[in-house]
Design goal:
- The structure is a single chain.
- The protein has 177 residues and is mainly beta.
- The chain has a domain of 123 residues: Hypothetical protein, similar to alpha- acetolactate decarboxylase, domain 2 (60s Ribosomal Protein L30, Chain: A), CATH 3.30.1330.80.
- The chain has two helices and ten strands, in the order βαβββββββββα.
- The strands form three sheets. Strands 1, 2, 3, 4, 5 and 6 form a six-stranded antiparallel β-sheet that branches.
- β3 and β4 form a beta hairpin.
- InterPro entries: PPC_dom.
- This is DUF296 domain-containing protein.
Length: 177
């Protein structure tokens, strides 16, 4: 796991900047773990709505969470206006930083996130794959069932063709010795 602090400047498009930044990274998966700051414009899509709603004003970022991949992001945000009224939804492009946006992003080098259109939802939904197959732990004292092995194309192909037989769904964030 690699943790990266970011600061966005006034006028930056919060979503577009995060997506552009993620596309420039060598990693294939990430998530937003912390965000504070303010927006002058928030473009939010509410549950069940087809289009974004534009909110203007001095808006404080209360929360921002979501997943990042080189081909897009899925981000939810909650903001408060100058009266303290809170509103939240799916963060869309066009949400502009007012004074600052201070973020902490976690990059996940062991994983690959990408998005594919899901016919059931009509949206590009997250797909997840480990970059290396899990191997059984050699440590009898380990409480983790599996560790990540170095990427090996043959083992990776075998891992996916066998449907992960014999492996658990638990992965460590860093390979163990």
């Amino acid at each position: 796991m690699k943790v990266v602090p970011l600061r966005l400047a006034p006028g930056d498009d919060l979503r577009r900047t995060l997506e552009t930044w993620m596309g420039e990274q060598q990693e294939l998966a990430g998530c937003v773990i912390s965000a504070v700051g303010s927006l002058s414009v928030a473009q939010l899509r509410f549950a069940g709505a087809a289009e974004a709603t534009t909110i203007h004003g001095e808006l404080e970022i209360l929360s921002l969470a979501g997943t990042l991949s080189p081909d897009g992001a899925h981000l939810h945000i909650a903001v408060a206006d100058s009266r303290g009224a809170v509103i939240g939804g799916h963060l869309c492009t066009g949400s502009l930083v007012r004074t600052t946006a201070e973020l902490v992003v976690c990059l996940l080098p062991e994983w690959h996130f990408w998005r594919e259109l899901d016919p059931a939802t009509g949206y590009p939904e997250l797909r997840i794959s480990p970059l290396a197959p899990p191997v059984k732990s050699l440590s009898s004292s380990s409480t983790i069932d599996t560790v990540l092995a170095p990427l090996n194309a043959h083992d990776l192909a075998s891992f996916f063709s066998t449907g992960h037989a014999g492996y658990t769904n638990y992965y460590t964030l860093e390979p163990q010795p």
